[in-house]
Amino acid sequence: MLRESEFNGVRSIALYCRVSTDEQAREGVSLDEQQERLKAYCRAMGWNHEIELFIDDGYSAKNTERPQLRKLLNSVKIGQISKVMVTKLDRMSRKLLDLLNLIDLFQEHEVSFISISESFDTNTPSGRLTLQVLGAVAEFERERIRERVFDNMLHAASNGKWLTQSPYGYQLVEKNLVINESEAAIVRRIFNSYLHEGKGYFAIAKQLNEENIPSRFNKEWSLRSIKLLLSNPVYKGTLVWNRVNSSKKKRQEKEEEEWVIVDDCLPTIIDKETWEAVQNRLNKKQIPSRAQSSPHLLGGLLKCGNCGGGMSISWSGSKNNRYRVYRCSNNKNKGTCTSKQFKADEVEAWFKQGLLQLTKNFSSEILLKLSEQTTDNRNINNEQKIRSAKARYNRKVEAYTAGLIELNDLTEEKQRMDQIIEALQSEEKHQEIDLEKVQKSIESKIGNVVNTIDTLPIEDAKALISTLVEKVVIKGEKEIEIKLSIF
Q1: Shortest CA distance to 460 belongs to which of 87, 257, 193, 267?
Q2: Which end of the chain is more exposed for a tag (fewer CB within 10 A), N or C?
Q3: What is the dihedral sign for C-alpha 417, 421, 426, 428?
């Protein structure tokens, strides 16, 4: 309850006194002595505001977790205090950083801080100058601490130690990630739904929520949580640290060269091939959500063979005999394309026939081209890993030059970089294209689509098709081109 003086806008003067157990017998630090000196100072300055005493008896200044200090800070925050007084700075805190954080809080709430022994008063020019000097020293110390902490965490991350809370699908046991089998089953289901069933973030989240399957901390699934899970390399056994700059209010992703990436150091839930396939799909231009929910089989996939524009659904025919047609959007909206319209039922039938013919017409040349696409993607990923390994080593060189790490740390990083480069270059040399395996994979996926396309709801059928087909180009009567996206 607020006192009458507080209702009148008059704030109190807070006198803070503290002694620790080993200081009880020391002259000049007793609680009574501190109180008398502070009250005498107030009388000498002519301050007749109401005084409040905050006394921590038997507490050290190693941290700010003291009951009366916490009570004082709460009074400051709600506007009850105008001045905070101590006999010496070390009564408030022996740590410079803690002291400056407290003074920052006081200034934020327009409360002056006074230490009578050091003649320190933040309301005076000399007090503010002293505060600025102390602040500069503290900022330097904060940076040094941040460097040491970062280096320690960098060393731990480079050796595969997990440094944050466990992601969904895992739990922390003695600072090591261990698979949580019940959650891991949901992770595998999400990857399968996205990669093999063609479902989007919304459809996956909606289904899990409808089945009352909670995400971490019993929260509902969202588009963002599904996307983050699908793109998290932890599930293939890779640790990635220092990816985001959290020192600013708005978190920003750092350049990839600054990331700490350690492969094959964590228990895996998703095999690498599946994870990479999901990333390929994530990075491809997705069909707009409106087209995904369109009740037309090739909505969002069908392109005009004349101008390359998208084909949209229109209606044609007489009042009693209306039928769907696919029509070039550039023809319909801009008049810049001269292509004709095509009956939708016929185009969709041609598409199904084309899928059936695909498995019978795969030449070695086509299979080789598809396999080379996979190899090229893998080589690009390997090049990125090599660049990251070299960037990590260069940072270690800088740290060693600055005296932040020992020579053995630098040597270990050099060995790690050499091992990564050697392993990836060896992988590229021994890559063999298994055409039979590629053909079986294609036939399996096409067969799955063909066998279920007529039995699924349109939305589910379109999702399944999107796992196999990147786009369909219509060039003329019964002439279509199907571009696959299975790699």
Answers
A1: 193
A2: N
A3: positive
The three-state secondary structure class of 452 is helix
* Encoded amino acid at 208, one letter: L
Structure tokens at 38: 């502070």
Provide the CATH number for the domain formed by 4-138 in this structure.
Answer: 3.40.50.1390
Angle at 145 between CA 139 and CA 150, to 5 degrees: 125
Distance, CA of 244 to CA of 343 (rounded, Å): 51
**What would the DSSP string read from start to end of 80-104?**
-EEEEEESSHHHH-SSHHHHHHHHH
Tokens of residue 460, six digits: 């589910």
Total residue count of the chain as it appears in this document? 487
Can you tell me which residue has the tokens 């460097």? Answer: 147
Beta strands in 118-183 (DSSP E): 120-121, 170-173, 176-179
- Enumerate helices (H) and strands (E) in the chain, giving the number of each: 17, 17
* Chain mean position to CA 173: 23
20 is known as an active-site residue: yes
What token pair was written down for 259?
Answer: 């990331």
Is residue 481 a contact partner of residue 473, using CB atoms and an 8 Å limit? yes
- For residue 54, give the 3-state DSSP assignment: strand
Tell me the domain boundaries of the chain.
4-138, 170-283, 292-361+438-484
- Asked if 117 and 88 touch (Cβ cutoff 8 Å), the reply is yes
pLDDT tens, position by position, 6-35: 434 578 999 999 988 665 545 457 888 899
Residue whose token pair is 């507490």: 59
pLDDT (0 to 100) of residue 5: 37
pLDDT in tens, 447-485: 777 777 777 777 777 777 777 788 889 988 888 888 877
| Residue that is written with structure tokens 């090739």 in the block | 298
Q: What superfamily does domain 170-283 belong to in CATH?
A: Putative Large Serine Recombinase; Chain B, Domain 2 (3.90.1750.20)
Helix, strand, or coil here: 365?
A: helix
Question: Which of these is catalytic: 20, 166, 293, 485?
Answer: 20
Strands annotated E in 279-338: 302-304, 311-318, 321-328
Phi, psi of 115, rounded to the nearest 5 degrees: -120, 115
